[in-house]
Design a protein that fits this description.
single chain, 538 residues, alpha+beta, five-stranded antiparallel beta sheet, four-stranded mixed beta sheet, 16 helices, 18 strands, globular
Length: 538
């Protein structure tokens, strides 16, 4: 046992592990260095340094009763637990804990799809269920339902939604925590609680009406540490009959402002799925002259960027639109979108893309027949989990910083300038914020932009620079009102510090709850920047 929980000696910890083996079976408690290898953050920039946060052991319960037993054992001894669903949260810490020496509660054995209801469009699953598992359960039963999955598909619907992950279909389903409905939770004292209608014995609407009666505590378990979620319901998308795409391009840089305005209307009216923005000028970033223009401190002028686009024969911006529904409705919504956009931006070009009945064929999922170059990740757009996104992973992995900004073209331009200038000194990194950087419309009502610097396990100096850049990005973004939505454990305190309204009133509220519900700090101390009194240093 090379790592021990805080304040526990080796003898007492060995006794604790013996109790856990009795609770879950000897084969399901892992304590050797070899067994604990998979519980390290393989994308960590602090790999093999004194700052890496390692587990002391891992335990894999098979059911809620065993989870309760583990929590009670840990509570008696003051052992911090760190629950994971599948541990595939790569770029955000993977399975690694906030507190060095925590025991990982690995819920992979709890892998049952408990219920899927086609007529009422919901599923109830355990945390070890992956998106692949849920997709297969639906397909094997021939149900006309569609999931909304992230990249990649081996993650858990429960784990992803509790991290407020996102997907790629219609707005109501892209917000995965927003599409959840009803959960079962083991509390820090080992008690089992159900939220919403699940608290009413005999209720049949647990996955249909999330609120029940009185305050709804469900949000406390998203990026929080108030319990271990052992069951969770999700609203599913009744599979549409038809799918249709279109590409809109605009010639000038400032056309982007009106383009976003029109796409917001279409999206908010639920006439289209995720709008996928891009700038064709990104293809010019390999040209030193254009790269210098796009990354110019203070921002290049609109005229200079328009001239570069014109010289290259490229539009400044594009958006892929996606339409779901009966064939006639998708056609009508496409025609409406075309008329609306051309009315607002007469110089725009609107090109009809593919359209076909669902479910898609393998070729259609491969997205090889579009009449134009498409930015749509077709598997995600059609709710089919895959591992294709791994092709973007370079070197030994990457970090994830995705600041949230308003859905407005001017705000995109402002973030390009501000963040580009702030990170200009880190010239070993790709330019993530430049005049061709496009926003992501993953969340139905906000934009995000990407900073995902690579890590090199054998290059500590490079990783130290990346770590500095990440912390600088969090700080500068917050100064301009752009908050990170999700973070690895090593950055959660820094992100939490930026949500500082009224002397951190929100964090102090969370700490008050933590001290009342989990005074010993058993469940994931530090997750979400929430520390119990035992660990607080402020």
């Amino acid at each position: 046992m090379s790592v021990l929980p805080p304040d526990l000696d080796a003898t007492r910890f060995a006794e604790a592990l013996a109790e856990m083996r009795q609770a879950v079976g000897a084969d399901w408690v892992f304590a050797s260095d070899e067994d604990l290898g998979p519980y390290r953050d393989s994308f960590s920039p602090v790999w093999d340094t004194q700052h890496e946060r390692l587990a002391s052991a891992a335990v894999a319960p098979a059911d809620v009763a065993q989870v309760s037993s583990i929590v009670r054992i840990a509570g008696r001894l003051g052992i911090p637990l760190f629950p994971i669903s599948t541990g595939k949260n790569f770029g955000y810490g993977g399975p690694s804990p906030n507190v060095h020496g925590s025991v990982i509660v690995d819920l992979k054995r709890m892998d049952k799809v408990l219920e899927v209801d086609e007529a009422r469009a919901f599923a109830l699953v355990e945390p070890g269920v992956s998106y692949f598992d849920l997709y297969r359960a639906i397909e094997e039963r021939g149900l006309r339902l569609m999931i909304d999955c992230p990249d990649p598909g081996w993650g858990s619907p429960i784990g992803n939604s509790l991290e407020r992950g996102i997907g790629y279909t219609m707005g109501a389903f892209r917000d995965h925590f927003g599409a959840s409905c009803g959960m079962e939770v083991v509390l820090p004292d080992g008690e089992v609680m159900r939220t919403g209608m699940g608290a009413l014995p005999g209720a049949k609407t647990w996955q249909e009406y999330r609120y029940g009666f009185g305050p709804d505590p469900a949000g406390l378990f998203a990026q929080g540490n108030f319990g271990i979620v052992t069951k969770m319901g999700f609203r599913l998308y009744p599979r549409p009959d038809h799918y249709r795409t279109a590409l809109v391009t605009v010639p000038r840089r400032r056309d982007f402002v009106k383009l976003v305005e029109q796409c917001n209307i279409l999206s908010d009216a639920m006439l289209c799925g995720e709008p996928v923005y891009a700038s064709p000028l990104m293809a010019l970033m390999g040209n030193p002259a254009f790269a210098a223009l796009a990354t110019k401190k203070g921002g290049a002028s609109d005229a200079a960027l328009d001239a570069a686009a014109s010289e290259a024969g490229l539009p400044s911006w594009q958006v892929d639109l996606q339409f779901f529904g009966p064939e006639a409705t998708t056609r009508a919504n496409f025609e409406h979108a075309r008329e609306r956009i051309l009315s607002a931006i007469p110089t725009a070009t609107v090109i009809a893309g593919e359209d076909f009945p669902l479910p898609a064929t393998r070729e259609q999922l491969a997205n090889v027949a579009q009449p134009y170059r498409s930015s749509i990740r077709r598997h995600g757009a059609l709710g089919v989990p895959s591992l294709g996104i791994w092709k973007i992973v370079r070197e030994d992995g990457h970090l994830g910083f995705f600041p949230v900004l308003a859905r407005a073209g001017e705000e995109v331009f402002r973030m390009q300038r501000v963040m580009g200038d702030a990170l200009h000194e880190f010239d070993q990194l790709p330019s993530y914020f430049n005049a061709a950087s496009a926003p992501l419309h993953w969340h139905p009502h906000a934009f995000q932009m990407v900073f995902a610097p690579p890590v090199r396990r054998a290059d500590p100096a490079f990783n130290a620079m990346v770590d500095t850049a990440m912390r600088r990005a969090v700080e500068v973004a917050a100064e301009h009102g752009w908050g990170d939505y999700r973070a690895a454990p090593i950055y959660q305190d820094a992100v939490s510090d930026t949500y500082s309204f009224n002397n951190h009133a929100l964090r102090r509220f969370h700490e008050t709850l933590k001290d009342a519900i989990d005074p010993a700090g058993i469940i994931a101390p530090g997750r979400g920047g929430i520390w119990p009194q035992r660990y607080r240093k402020r």
